[in-house]
Amino acid sequence: MPRIPFPEPVAVWLFNGQPDLGMRLIRDVHDGLAALHRYGIENLKNDGCPCREWRVARSALDEALREPTLENVSAARTALIDAAARVGALAATDGHGIFIMRREPFAT
């Protein structure tokens, strides 16, 4: 199956809370699905039960795989950003992979 690229990559910290260890650019839907199990995002699955942001991201990414329209792929990217932001793994960039600032996790 061909890779389905995001309109712009999503930058996440490789190890949440340790920005000096680097970040990764998630460039497509396949990497987005894999990211749901990495970078601290997997911690949204409390006691094996995914929280809302994780479920929404999984559903949107699955839909983008089935129907790779620009609307679905953009929605999947947005849902992945929401999940990464929820755990503080989101790293803001200038759109070219250049780090700008660290975003703090949402309060729980």
UniProtKB/TrEMBL annotation:
Gene source species: Enterovirga aerilata
Name of the protein described by the UniProt record: Uncharacterized protein
Top-level taxon: Bacteria
